[in-house]
Please model this.
Amino acid sequence: MPEERPHVVIVGAGFGGLRAARALRRTPVQVTLVDRRNYHLFQPLLYQVATAGLSPEDIAHPVRAIFRRQRNFAFRLAEVLGVDVAGRVLRTSTGDLPFDWLILAPGGTNNFFGLDSVEENGLALKDIEDAVAVRNQVLRMFETAVQEPDADRRRAMLNFVVVGGGPTGVESSGALSELIRLVLTKDFPDLNVKDVRVILVEATDRLLGAMPERLREVTAEILWRKHVEVRFGAQVTRFDGERVVLRGGEVIPARTLIWAAGVRAEPLVDGLGAPLGPQGRVRVRETLQLPGADRVFVIGDAAYLEDDQGAALPMMAPVAQQQADHAARSIVRALRGEPLQSFRYRNPGSMATIGRNAAVAHVKGLQFSGFFAWVAWLVLHIVLLIGFRNRLLVLINWAWDYFLYDRAVRLIHAREMHTGPAEARRAHPTDAAGEAAAKKAG
Amino acid sequence: MPEERPHVVIVGAGFGGLRAARALRRTPVQVTLVDRRNYHLFQPLLYQVATAGLSPEDIAHPVRAIFRRQRNFAFRLAEVLGVDVAGRVLRTSTGDLPFDWLILAPGGTNNFFGLDSVEENGLALKDIEDAVAVRNQVLRMFETAVQEPDADRRRAMLNFVVVGGGPTGVESSGALSELIRLVLTKDFPDLNVKDVRVILVEATDRLLGAMPERLREVTAEILWRKHVEVRFGAQVTRFDGERVVLRGGEVIPARTLIWAAGVRAEPLVDGLGAPLGPQGRVRVRETLQLPGADRVFVIGDAAYLEDDQGAALPMMAPVAQQQADHAARSIVRALRGEPLQSFRYRNPGSMATIGRNAAVAHVKGLQFSGFFAWVAWLVLHIVLLIGFRNRLLVLINWAWDYFLYDRAVRLIHAREMHTGPAEARRAHPTDAAGEAAAKKAG
Model:
């Protein structure tokens, strides 16, 4: 029976792909969701994994568990290699997948704007492995600094540069500064806290550019109170692993750079033959259809569409989810022979949290900040998490950290967590020798 | 002031090293604990990480958090390279560490008895990375099998061979079989459960060799009920990643082999110049001192000592902990000029759990099995875990899995979780291509 139903293939188990698959649960189609991971990642809390507040497992949920009761659903763990739009075939690492309808929700990836040295030596924050790498690096720098006799080298180990004043950069630098001030200073009483700097580098003169001016100022003020040094109008041009070089030549000695300054659509969409907009996003039609291909929809971070004022729709979960609903509804309409409708985005507002008791929120023209906004942020993110167990675990971890001024998950994973049996077991010492060995192997 | 105090260096943050450091908290010495990890790992529950029941973070605790309030304590994250016994210096990857007293508690590592092919292609269960690698492999085999059209190849993907009928092998195979029967069959309704086999290979004719006969039989019976095929008198001679070859030539087609058949002392002790006993363990004196070196104690898995009946003390946490207490007391006695005493092991009994509602226990000559032993096992392990937060999280995970017949942590980590920034971000597709790439890189 499922063979006779139209086959809807969805690429990506992010907010968009998940929502589209779910929206089609009562539609007489067969759904196949393809992703290279077997889990959905709740990306908005990724920075809390990077700053040792949450375990990776707290914010990830197996795709098969989410859809266990959906009968018209199948999952395929595979890398997507390309799309044969005319032939209606999705090329994957485990073989071809023919489709009647395709919803592409592959999301975004980091954009280093050609700064190879930053890409090579810096860290990013797009997936679980990134977040664990950041956690490893920060904790390792403290363990290394406490054994370093040279004051200059020690200070460089304790300088943490975050690049980009958007939500990721603001949230990461705030959480990082708190991890250091509230927790690591107790772990390392021998280190001088004055040697520790968290520096947020932003190219323009504003943080959280999409927020109204008052909230942008509040954000800068809160970061200042949390000992984050914000450098406006500063651009990183090079990072060799020891020195961050800014445009103009200024050098910040630092061993850690976290890149939160640019995202772009997954390169998969480059091969669609469609016109691309800013950030490599596909310029879709008003219906979210790929130009020239009625059976292919592109949604979420990978799609470029403007609102009524001509501003690009942001790369955020609510956009992806509303577009997912729209694409699913469009397939239903098409199956009924009805004409498709244009997508219209309803902005639910935006928020950012900046550590303990502090957040900013802009909802329906109203501006909130401080403790109230922070509590609203907590409640909203608990509600949005998938699965009762994840909610409970995140809640426990938050309560623990809040009341005890702790970050419990400060573990340095020394070796790769990978599938290859032999590689996984090969010794990787945790110190400088290990890093060198890893670099050689990589 | 600390400089004037005798310096006690402890190697290893396992059960022995941790206990020794704690036992010295009120002694007028300065303690330095050296480990290549920054956390203590609760190894008895490692197999539950491997079978997707617990997160790695649930059973690991940062060393600095454990000792935050101990004033005479310092931690050094470093690899131990060797010991200059005569010069009283510990050589580490971050420099030399002079000591007045040394307590070596480096633990054990896997012993493949020269079976290179097994070491190369099999998986082990000694640390967190091992456990995550097993979890990755098992889940990945299901994801691969469900896409595999060839029946023979599919069955090989669904054969899981566990080698070794000791506690690790018994507990792993039981938990693995339950993960498959209770959870994965629901995730993969298209797979035929009859294609799935968990095979426990044991060279002798008994499981849990240290247990009394009745409990050994109960163990075999419980495993049989849980669909684990136990192969007695069978020895693995080769594993190429596709076929497990037994002595005599029999071949089991399987893509997964978990090695739980041999441990030996950390090779670090090979360089001490002391006589080694079975499993590479150092033949220590009755006082736990290294022969010919009064200021060096060796404890735990790395030390070889016999009980009154001439049987080797087992490589288990209680032995390490009692020896740690003894070594700490010995240092106190030596500081007071009193003679050292012989170590005497008080056997607290042993237990093993074999999945839901089933465990065997041998305590003070009494034998328990079934539900009561299982509850006792649960309570004991919760109590033994370090930290209220870890206890709470493990308890929640256990309750969740027990009542919902679930294993929530079934995530495949696709890429290494490593410190090297560039390596951590490099794309590692999750499929066969990725495995090949990883092998090339390794």
Notes: Chain B touches chain A through 81 residues (CB under 8 Å). The two ends of chain B are 48 Å apart (CA to CA). Residues 116-261 of chain B form a domain with the FAD/NAD(P)-binding domain fold (CATH 3.50.50.100). Confidence is low (pLDDT under 50) at residues 416-442 of chain B.
